[in-house]
Amino acid sequence: MVVRVGLVGGSGYTGGELLRILAVHPNVEVTYVTSREYAGKPFTAIHPHLRGFYKGLKFSEVNVEALVEKCDTVFVNTPHGVSSTLTPQFLDRGLRVLDLSADFRLRKPADYEKWYETKHPRPELLDKAVYGLPEIYREFIKTASLVACPGCNSTAALIALVPAVEQGLIDLERIVVDVKVGSSEAGIKPSLGTHHPERANVMRPYEAEGHRHVAEVEQELSLLAKKPVKVALVPHAVGAVRGALATAHVWFLNEETDENNVWKVYASRYAKEPFIRIVHGAPFRYPDPKYVVGSNFADVGFAVEKRIGRAALFAAIDNLMKGAAGQAVQCFNIMHGFDERDGLNYPPLRPA
Ligand SMILES: NC(=O)c1ccc[n+]([C@@H]2O[C@H](COP(=O)([O-])OP(=O)(O)OC[C@H]3O[C@@H](n4cnc5c(N)ncnc54)[C@H](OP(=O)(O)O)[C@@H]3O)[C@@H](O)[C@H]2O)c1
């Protein structure tokens, strides 16, 4: 079976990454890709890495009717606030949608309004969207018509924390996460804080109080824990182009918990996950985004400090892959009954 795929927002970083993955996907024909700025131009006008692929295809204007006619499934890669008006139009006409923006990640309209400071135009859809983290929602993604792909910081934080929370290993009142993330997380358009002279070599905390990704991390951990979970999360902009590393500082409920207990919980929880690798033992002792770049893998590890009953839980991802386009394609594969690894079955780059 070949699925006809459209991209709304094909000229940005996640759009470019989706096109890279889908170029070799065995069950996909890319039929419609939008960019208002590059409409009428070939993809290589902004994506030089795609030279030799997609010959004859050009960017188009955002035209809902044309997308509906030419596509079965659409990836929406626009800034938040745009997808919430476009996605309902696709759903109303029977298309399936994977939204990479934040517009459908929060289940409650009041939460969306609080964190995104605007009313959701189609609040009834929030409850129907499936949060696109296959490690939790694989069964629901299979039949979803709308998948809300998680943020990159949230993906890393959740993958680091899910087994410990599910198994009741840690104190849910004290979860402190810091995330280091590369510059491509900010998208393709430079701003004062993100253009090269300002961003290169930084180690800069940002949105240190109330980053919006906190909302989805708390939402998902609370659902797993079946009670409200509060999380302190501080992202840090670092000089890398790709990569996100979450370090979750947690305290055990049982002071006897040791490395062996944690190892067993993580190894068994993620044993069947095609894109989770447990990192344990020298010489590369802890997860490092450098060793997942270009791939959909999340490397997970931990450091247990038994002396004070705490652990640091780590997850390293490529923000454009497991943190965005790769995870979206993983969900797409699940939705369509394909092998989850289709288009994604390769090791990371090294050196990167
Ligand atoms: N970068 C990451 O690591 C990452 C990770 C996870 C999730 N995300 C989320 O994924 C989405 C895309 O991120 P990105 O990094 O690819 O952003 P980007 O590089 O800035 O690209 C944005 C894309 O959206 C299009 N667009 C912008 N405004 C539009 C509008 N009003 N109507 C139609 N198209 C519009 C742009 O094309 P034209 O302006 O030419 O139309 C462009 O193709 C964002 O919501 C972001 O938060 C990003």
From TrEMBL:
<dbReference type="GO" id="GO:0005737">
    <property type="term" value="C:cytoplasm"/>
</dbReference>
<keyword id="KW-0457">Lysine biosynthesis</keyword>
<keyword id="KW-0963">Cytoplasm</keyword>
<protein>
    <recommendedName>
        <fullName>Putative [LysW]-L-2-aminoadipate/[LysW]-L-glutamate phosphate reductase</fullName>
        <ecNumber>1.2.1.103</ecNumber>
        <ecNumber>1.2.1.106</ecNumber>
    </recommendedName>
</protein>
<dbReference type="InterPro" id="IPR023013">
    <property type="entry name" value="AGPR_AS"/>
</dbReference>
<comment type="similarity">
    <text>Belongs to the NAGSA dehydrogenase family. Type 1 subfamily. LysY sub-subfamily.</text>
</comment>
<dbReference type="GO" id="GO:0070401">
    <property type="term" value="F:NADP+ binding"/>
</dbReference>
<feature type="active site">
    <location>
        <position position="152"/>
    </location>
</feature>
<dbReference type="GO" id="GO:0042450">
    <property type="term" value="P:L-arginine biosynthetic process via ornithine"/>
</dbReference>
<dbReference type="Pfam" id="PF22698">
    <property type="entry name" value="Semialdhyde_dhC_1"/>
</dbReference>
<dbReference type="InterPro" id="IPR037535">
    <property type="entry name" value="LysY"/>
</dbReference>
<keyword id="KW-0055">Arginine biosynthesis</keyword>
<dbReference type="InterPro" id="IPR000534">
    <property type="entry name" value="Semialdehyde_DH_NAD-bd"/>
</dbReference>
<dbReference type="InterPro" id="IPR036291">
    <property type="entry name" value="NAD(P)-bd_dom_sf"/>
</dbReference>
<dbReference type="GO" id="GO:0003942">
    <property type="term" value="F:N-acetyl-gamma-glutamyl-phosphate reductase activity"/>
</dbReference>
<dbReference type="InterPro" id="IPR000706">
    <property type="entry name" value="AGPR_type-1"/>
</dbReference>
<comment type="function">
    <text>Involved in both the arginine and lysine biosynthetic pathways.</text>
</comment>
<feature type="binding site">
    <location>
        <position position="319"/>
    </location>
    <ligand>
        <name>NADP(+)</name>
    </ligand>
</feature>
<dbReference type="GO" id="GO:0051287">
    <property type="term" value="F:NAD binding"/>
</dbReference>
<comment type="pathway">
    <text>Amino-acid biosynthesis; L-lysine biosynthesis via AAA pathway; L-lysine from L-alpha-aminoadipate (Thermus route): step 3/5.</text>
</comment>
<keyword id="KW-0560">Oxidoreductase</keyword>
<dbReference type="InterPro" id="IPR058924">
    <property type="entry name" value="AGPR_dimerisation_dom"/>
</dbReference>
<keyword id="KW-0521">NADP</keyword>
<dbReference type="InterPro" id="IPR050085">
    <property type="entry name" value="AGPR"/>
</dbReference>
<comment type="pathway">
    <text>Amino-acid biosynthesis; L-arginine biosynthesis.</text>
</comment>
<dbReference type="Pfam" id="PF01118">
    <property type="entry name" value="Semialdhyde_dh"/>
</dbReference>
<feature type="binding site">
    <location>
        <begin position="11"/>
        <end position="14"/>
    </location>
    <ligand>
        <name>NADP(+)</name>
    </ligand>
</feature>
<dbReference type="GO" id="GO:0019878">
    <property type="term" value="P:lysine biosynthetic process via aminoadipic acid"/>
</dbReference>
<feature type="domain" description="Semialdehyde dehydrogenase NAD-binding">
    <location>
        <begin position="4"/>
        <end position="144"/>
    </location>
</feature>
<keyword id="KW-0028">Amino-acid biosynthesis</keyword>
